[in-house]
Specification:
ten-stranded mixed beta sheet, 3 domains, six-stranded mixed beta sheet, single chain, FAD/NAD(P)-binding domain, globular, alpha+beta
Length: 473
């Protein structure tokens, strides 16, 4: 039963995705009185957590294009988060009474569907070995469930026993049960629409259809909803960078005639995490996922072309058996990410307001780690340094350099490598490069102004597709 009031809450956590729930639980476990604000029931349309495949992947999210410094920074935090899961899940299982299962191990497969997949496997293996974890090379024929189409050959496989998967629906349900039962937590099922100064130095949270809530400190874990929430908070200066949204489309299949004991995926490609098949606790198979820079929540359902591309690529590259399964549901989630693709964690320019967001494709993995970081900020005057300071300076990418590095990935979206002569890819890459660069630099062409405006709004590699759309419109 939900309690309707909690006097003198120590902190309000706004957001009920996995990071918000994990943060509320960690704060309550440390003795803080917590007001949790956000929806509990319903579809949670667009929420990244409930649409996630939930791969706990510190290494297979590494790309060959990542700098050594970047790999060291990100992988170190992801390994720390993965290590937490081994103790976090048993605690959550005991507290909730739910049969929460952590499935260890993950396969990464190199196929002719991805340009340079062999190089990507090398980068993943190097990251794992550097951090003291195993990365085992195997023949693709040894991968359980792998059965690609004849047109798309698998030519390498990597077994990562240190990675894992978890059923995101089960995890969210377990966290929900624990928080509803905790005596130190009050859950207000309303959408927060703004923050405002309040009497006595507290902050007031205005909610749609609900009275305002006051608390001395507020944690924002609202994902891509941050933009709208800040727009409704004109009297606060938080000095936060823009939050972008990557739309991900996934599907759930049942009655797939294959054995899939652990997750199978391709490496990073096409501005996304590759395609992946994840076994669910109920016997279904999760198929994911696309990634397109999109306005937050603009399209709450999958586009036909998104779903068609997802199913075709996953079937051809990983298992044609998927084509015999039944689609029982689709998911759309909007992943929050920043201009430098690193999370925002900790106090903002207003020390009463903390943030835990911007986790992009790693929100499920990082949740217990970020929850500990935020709880440390709430309960201690001395907090260990970490790379996710939300007040850090972020220098936007320059368009010419981004074009140089990422145009081959954009070409792959048009011309899949396994079906296109290399010469044709090179011609298209040169054409796109010269055209976009000329448009971006030519002040006399009105289409160039549209391209430049689009880039200024989102100076990230994922925006290259949007530049083409802006040009054509």
């Amino acid at each position: 039963m939900l309690r309707s009031d909690m006097p003198n809450a120590d902190v309000a956590v706004v957001g009920t995705g996995v990071i918000g729930l994990a943060t509320a639980w960690e704060a309550a476990r440390r003795g803080l009185r917590v007001r949790l604000v956000g929806p509990r029931l319903g579809e949670h349309r667009g929420q990244a957590s409930r649409a996630a495949g939930a791969m706990l992947a510190p290494f297979s999210e590494v790309a060959a294009s990542d700098s050594p410094e970047r790999v060291a920074l990100e992988v170190g935090e992801r390994v720390a988060a993965r290590d937490l899961y081994d103790s976090w899940v048993p605690l959550l299982r005991e507290a909730s009474g739910r049969p929460l299962t952590l499935t260890p191990g993950l396969w990464v497969v190199a196929t002719t569907g991805g340009r340079g997949d062999a190089t990507e496997l090398d980068a993943i293996a190097d990251a794992a070995l550097t951090h003291g974890h195993r990365a085992e090379r195997h023949d693709p024929g040894e991968v359980p469930g792998l059965s690609p189409a004849r047109s798309c050959v698998a030519h390498g496989a990597l077994w990562l026993p240190g990675e894992a998967t978890i059923d995101s629906g089960e995890l969210m349900s377990a966290l929900t049960e624990v928080l509803l039962a905790h005596t130190g937590v009050t859950w207000t099922e309303a959408e927060a629409v703004g923050l405002h100064p309040s009497a006595g130095g507290d902050l007031a949270i205005s909610c749609a259809g609900s009275p305002r809530i006051s608390a001395p400190r507020v944690v924002l874990a609202v994902g891509v909803g941050l933009t709208d929430l800040l727009a409704g908070s004109p009297d606060l200066e938080l000095s936060l960078p823009p939050m972008l949204a990557g739309k991900g489309v996934s599907a759930l299949l049942r009655h797939v005639p294959m054995t899939l004991p652990t997750a199978v995926r391709t490496p990073m490609r096409d501005f996304a995490c590759g395609i992946h098949l994840v076994p669910r606790a109920d016997g279904m198979v999760y198929v994911g996922a696309t990634n397109r820079l999109s306005p937050s929540g603009a399209v709450p359902y999958p586009l036909v072309m998104e779903l068609a591309d997802l199913l075709r690529e996953s079937g051809d590259e990983l298992s044609t058996k998927l084509y015999e399964g039944e689609i029982v549901g689709t998911r759309v989630g909007y992943r929050p990410f920043t201009l430098d693709h690193l999370p925002l964690v900790g106090p903002t320019a207003d020390p009463r307001v903390l943030i835990a967001s911007g986790t992009y494709r790693n929100g499920m993995l990082l949740a217990p780690r970020l929850a500990e970081m935020i709880a440390d900020h709430l309960t201690s005057d001395t907090v260990a340094e970490h790379p996710f300071d939300p007040t850090r300076t972020i220098t936007p990418s320059a368009l010419p350099e981004t074009l140089e590095q990422w145009l081959p990935d954009l070409v792959d979206l048009f011309l899949p490598p396994h079906g296109t002569p290399t010469a044709m890819q090179g011609v298209l890459a040169d054409l796109l490069h010269q055209s976009l660069r000329a448009l971006a630099c030519d002040g006399s062409d009105p289409r160039g102004a549209v391209v430049r405006r689009t880039w200024q709004q989102a100076p990230v590699p994922e925006a290259l597709w949007s530049l083409l759309v802006a040009y054509l419109r």
